[in-house]
Amino acid sequence: MTVANNELEKVIIQSVMEELAKKGLLSHKGKDQVMAAAMMDTPLVPNTESEEMVTFPPQEEMQISNPFNADAVKAMKKLTPARIGIGRAGTRPKTMSLLRFLADHAVAQDAVFLDVSEEFLRRMNLMSVQSAATSKDEFLQRPDLGRRLSEEAVKIVSEKCEKNVQVQILIVDGLSSTAIEANIPDLLPALIQGLKSAGIKVGAPFFVKNGRVWVQDHVASIVNSEVIISLIGERPGLGTAESLSAYMIYRPNENTVEADRTVISNIHKGGIPPAEAGAHLTDVIQQILAAKASGVKLNQQK
Amino acid sequence: MILKAKVYNKIFAFQSLKEVMAKANEEKSGDELVGIAAKSASERVAAKLVLSNLTLEDIYNNPVIPYEEDEVTRAIYDGLNLRIYQEIKSWTVGYLREYILDHKTTGEDLTHISRGLTSEMIAAVAKLMSTMDLVFGSKKMRVQSHCNTTLGVPGTLAFRCQPNHPTDNIEGMLASLKEGLAYGSGDAVIGINPVEDNVETVTRLLDTVKNFMIKWEIPTQNCVLAHVTTQIKAIEKGAPVDLVFQSIAGTQKANDAFGVNAAILDEAFALAQRKGTATGPNLMYFETGQGSEVSLDAHLGVDMMTLEARTYGYARGYHPFMTNNVSGFIGPETIYSGREVIRADLEDLFMGKLHGLPMGIAPCYTNHMKADQNDQEMGTLLCAMAGSNFFMGVPGGDDVMLSYQDTSYHDDASTREILGLRPLPEFEKWLEKMGILAKGKLTERAGDPSIFDK
Amino acid sequence: MPESTNQRITSVGIDIGTTTTQLVISQLTIENTASGTLVPRVEITDKEVIHRSRIYFTPLLDRDLINAVEVSKIVETEYMAAGLTPEMIDTGAVIITGETAKKENAKAIIDALAGFAGDFVVATAGANLEAIYAGKGSGAALYSAQRHQVTVNIDVGGGTSNYAMFHEGKAVDSSCLNVGGHLIEFERQGDRITYISEPAETALKHRGQRLQVGERVTLPQLRPIVKAMAGCVVDVLKTSVHTELTKELLMTPPLQLAHPIRKVMISGGVADYVYALNGPMTMAEVTAFGDFGPLLGWELKVCLERDGFVLEKPEETVRATVIGTGTQSVNLSGSTIHLQENTLPIRNVMVISPFTSLIPETPQSIAEVIKKEILRLQVDRFEGIVAIAMKGPRTMSFANIDILAQGLLLGMHDYLCKAKPLILVVEADCGKVLGQCINASVNKPLEVICIDQLEVDNCDYIDIGKPLMGGRVVPVVLKTLVFNR
Known about the structure:
The structure holds three protein chains of three kinds. Chain A is of the alpha/beta class. Chain A is about 45% helix and about 10% strand. Chain A contains twelve helices and six strands. Chain A has helices at about 5-20, 30-40, 70-80, 95-115, 120-125, 135-140, 145, 150-160, 175-195, 215-225, 275-290, 295-300; strands at about 125-130, 165-170, 205-210, 225-235, 245-250, 260-265. By secondary structure, chain B is an alpha/beta fold. The mean pLDDT of chain B is about 95. Chain B has a four-stranded parallel sheet with strand order 7-6-5-12, with helices on one face. Chain B has 21 helices and 16 strands. By secondary structure, chain C is of the alpha/beta class. Chain C has 16 helices and 23 strands. Chain C has helices spanning about 70-80, 100, 105-115, 125-140, 140-145, 200-205, 220-240, 245-250, 270-275, 285, 295-305, 320-330, 365-375, 400-410, 415, 430-440; strands at about 5-15, 20-30, 40-50, 55, 60, 65, 90-95, 120-125, 150-155, 160-165, 170-175, 185, 195, 265, 310, 330, 340, 345-350, 385-390, 420-425, 450, 460-465, 475-480. In chain C, strands 16-23-22-18-19-20-21-17 form an eight-stranded mixed sheet. In chain C, strands 1, 2, 3, 4, 7 and 8 form a six-stranded mixed sheet that branches. In chain C, strands 11-10-9-14-15 form a five-stranded mixed sheet. Chains in contact: A-B, A-C, B-C. At the A-B interface, helix 3 and helix 4 of A face helix 2, helix 11 and helix 20 of B.
């Protein structure tokens, strides 16, 4: 930082700072700090203890300078989650658009590649077992491995899980560990409350790491529940990495096909909120139990 | 046919052409998943070595899937020009590579021999080519097609404006369309992937886009990427369709899974000729991608790259207006990393062009792959240098309906300006009239979707 | 549970105005629009007007009193013409508007129509609501959304001008001015005055002009007074500093003008003269219908254009209000709700909104707030049924939803002892789980109607209809609407 030692420089620095502050690129406190540093003969040290931080401007903010019809741009942005009305620097995106895109992709990648934390599983009191896929890389490249339990998991499930219950709940990381941590704390108690109020016998829920949807068939073959429901992380989009799906099936067997599953997707705070989803899933499971069928077969009975 | 090779002190023996074709591939997770990839770097080179020495006749005589069992194989063999094939059948694959790259060989020469090459021959030679080989070879070939406007005009680069919406909301779709047009995207086609694959939705989207094109006098084509049978029903009911779309693959089994066969495609093409809204003669839009046969469990032990070439062999009989490759969309079990996507995109662009197809590329990626925006942008520039006819145009690069990333409206405009390429001629005139483009560059007014809201 | 993919309901709209009475019958299509694996989302997807009545002169007993029996005969005649019986009407609204609403007619009409207007038709009045229905019926609401431009609809009828301002399809402001085409009456196609209303007297007084019943007037005599009234109509659009006359004629607070206005649509009986190519040239043309509507329309056009407003043509003019009433009065609840009842439909449910800010943290403090509000509104003396309305739980966590459930049960304990149903209306999407939490906490049979995704903040009463789509949703009609105040 050069030290300003004449009046003209002071004025220039001051006006630049004010302009930056006006545009929200520099906080007033930050401005004062920089000014102080520029005016006095002290070096600028980063203030890591400050509460202040850099963050993204609100998404609805107008990014186009001098739009033809600003109301129209604002309205259009409300009509679609697509990244429109974002302006440009030459032909390239503006800095904030670029960084927001990178942030959204980073959040999505973290959801896919990071595991559900041990601390979370302890807090939710969930037993944890693993699929036959031993790493995320293997899980992503070998769909077959994520569809069955590891040998160790088979042993644990056989020994510890209650057999012949009406409903077994599985929590499966799938393609988003973030979805699990974001939704399960509100979804699971609502679902269990609903099922218990309806007098339905529910086995203790547990967690499957590196699992895919079909792992529920393997688990069902061991615990012999009537209905098995997997709450599984969806493949993240850039819009959200928190979306969860529920896959339910009535007594799966080796002839089971995709169409035999009943699916409810888009469970997250921006879709159907997790607690409300828990109550809704209770209804769906009751229908499956009553019809003794799920998926297309259930719909045909309706 | 020699299927054995020695790489320095190691000897590798292969059982079949099919095995050689698979093992000669650059590393891709789909070939690994199926268990047909080379087990070592040396084995990979050995397979390339064996392949380089095979003649085109060897390949002709050993189709990877028998003629009797597979509609795609039949389409490839039945469509072959035997006279040209006879002239070149003694060439080795290694020679074919050098012929393609030779300075004396022109784009016209390549278009000519293309008619005597089966898809497997084209895949084979691409397996011997490095990244720069592929770009160099692709750049020679320029394939033009005409629907309402001409695609592939030298010096141009076109884009499909892809204004998808997660609930098919008409106004929301229009918002993304306006943004795209304001960046100069949409000369290849305005193409929407619907969420709901039914006649009502498809018709509503087609009508909306067509009316918008008429109102603003936009010289381009419209298309809604529903299943071909849905589009057939919509056309029968009078929906305005310029281009008929379908996803296709390289085995009959995979096409069965897509719910499509030659009879259906013939019907669609005939209907587009009789009841479509376009000038033609090219009326079809195909999408393909390495790995779709693997994800449908319909690969029959053949490697992804060879199957992709076969898909082009199947497509060329329909003289499509555009063929778009989306290898990066299929998933990490088939293509895992940014490096794999870029390689696949360049292979596909080259193989498609050598089939005489008007190729475009979507150098895209999904969030469960080890790929990012930098990979996509590298792939885009390489494919543009290799002479891709078009790319996609997605708002901000984020497709909010299909949940994947593809080239953005910004990337479209950037690629044109970096490489000095222009929009298709009629569309450029329109952009100039609208004040969006001047002398090939975006104007101050560009990038503002509200210029359509008076 | 059988689930049809769509259902049709028949809705009636009846508009009883100062001058005219009209009725339309519409068919609303209700559909699940969510695709594939999404939780159902039931919406009104189509509105089709299947019957438009003749435009009747509102039957009057004398100048101030509507002939309710005659009105019910009109309704009966029109049902017959449409081939419908009252039982076939599912929902709708009667709106008593303009000058008639000021008079004590509402009750008589509600009583007279009780038997004719189907099982679930409500009577409602209020200038603001009328204005909004008119703007929706005229197409102004849609126009503002499609063109992304603020649009004001002015429904100019016999007695009043009703303003509704729309921004992106939503009503954001409304107002009512006592100016209409029927404020002075004449012999038909003549020039003799037969009646001068109070607001017309006010206008005359402000202009220092004198006219009397029985007197004959010329066009040059009449024009300035009509021009003055038209000026007041435009005054409300232009500024918040109003002329003395405007101030006197305003029947509600004026428009707040939070958005700049350029586009204006005129509906109502006078509208056709706004969009006419030429103004009336003789007194006979002015008084073709025994009032000065044609002249007011023309002067309004002149005034608006002089002040730079752009007049857009509405889709409906004289029928705008009734079409809006018939097609827009029904709201649907969210599609995941909790119904445990056998009392629907329920009419005239009094809405209580006890929580002005964030919901308290504990069941006890939630209960206290509810009890206080019940005491304040003397709900214990109220014979009818009440609904508790709120934005939602403190947060959308299950724990907070459960706390809210406990608080509601505690706070409503005395009320529920009278064997009344517990009716909850929540804005946030949590109706089903809130109902489930309540159900899990009570140990005796309790009727619970817990519906969500409805904003009833500013309304006094709601009607809740019979469940539709296999119990997925209920139709709800809001009884009054006041903006920003």
